[in-house]
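Dear colleagues,

As part of the handover before I leave the project, I'm documenting each prediction I ran so the next person doesn't have to rerun anything. This entry is a single chain, and its sequence is reproduced below.
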Amino acid sequence: MKFGLVLVFLALTSSAQAEPAAVNDHFAVWSPDGRSIAFTSDRSGDPEIYVALADGSGLRKLTDTPGRDAHPIYTPDGETLLFQSPRNDGAVRLFAMSNDGSGARQLSATQGFCGVPAPSPDGRRIAMMCSARATAPGQGAFPWRIFVMSAEGGDLTPVGDGPGNDQVPVWTPDGRSLVFFSNRSGVDQLYQIELDSGAVSALTRGPHAHRAASFTPDGEMLLMMRQTTDGRHEVRALNPESGEDRLILETASGFGAPVVSPDGRRFLFPDAEGDQARIGLADIDGSNRRLLEFRD
């Protein structure tokens, strides 16, 4: 994923509109209580933010504006969803709304592209990936950098200054560091940066590309996406202390991140069915795998 990261706003609407021939669902995340899943879908013809119960039922559409509303993520208290959108003037910026879709407000006033938000464990800060000149993720000619700002939208601060593109930040459970992927070595690998000292350490190495990741609730493991040199997409579990990793499952898509449930028992992951992007769900060991079917 070369992520691979939102004020005209309409009230909550039903998803019972005519759906396009191909429906693509991306970027699924859990609510903090594990009962709901928020995600991006183009099922209404334009990428918008949706929410459903964890079994796929109770589907609701939360945004309805032109442009690609994407990368929703809950704040730790579960009351707010952060997301990215080009809805004001084409520049992709961060927005926040209530978890029912009401009260959308812009948080950042950056130019270019700032998205893929990640709230800190204490809810006081937001990390994101930005490029001053890019208009979409994955534009390698435009350097991507990680930034952190306050939850209210101020004090935008760059994190790290290494070569290459730094993308898709995720907080360590203690809130002291960020994990991200970067091609600074020539191949996408996972890195960790300590926010106080600025010290950077490589978590993965080798010829395979390692991309978006998320921690298990106990902080002892990272679930990460790996693209092998022969083009296969894998979800793997990495011990950040020892560097040991193991295969959890293979998937048809690497466009997104595996996201562990709050109870640590399951995870969401990007998958595909034919030409359609889908959201997969499996137990933490990779068993009981299935594609989520979202419905009203």
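Residues 1-19, 137-141 have pLDDT under 50 and may be disordered. Residues 80 and 98 are 5 Å apart (CA to CA).

All the best with the project,
I.
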